[in-house]
Input
Amino acid sequence: MQKAQPRSAFPYLGWGVAGVALILLAVVLLWPDQNSAPSAASPPFATAPGASQAAGGTGVDIASMTPRERADRLFDRVMRELSAGDTAQALAFVPMALDAHALVDEMDADLHYHVAMLRLLAGEPERTRAHADTILSAEPSHLFGLHAAGRAHQVMGEEREAAGFYQRLLESYEEEFASGRPEYQAHAPALPYMRRDAENYLSSRE
Output
């Protein structure tokens, strides 16, 4: 049997922004940063060299941020632009967000998931899978890693592999949800969307 050809990171682009959100994940559009994320009406960066378009005149001093704060802010900005329907603007911020993440010395599961989703948005599902593998090598049942791996295989047209990761996510969900991982607590509203994503995909294959 001939292997399915890799798909675009935006296979549902013809459906509009809602379709794009589905193939990334519905959760990223509701990805809260409870500690530092500004409101949707308040862009994260003040005018600064190389970041003037991201600024929006909020008075935030980018030089005073830690590398982690800059990475979080730019990821949030990409996701807010996507949720607002401005796919072109979201894509424009992806390289800057990836550069910011590369400057963080210690990448945890949360940041690896950020990069995985940014790579998926950039049309690089193989690199999404690599970050999922990094998460899963440390924690084989981590929901972020399982979801990112499932998404990567789904985009690449590897349905059996995608279904396997989504099934593992559902089997691990209750125990992981109750584990109290800091990243789960910080993004608690996102987790049910990951489960729903897996359920919907598996149901579509029945």
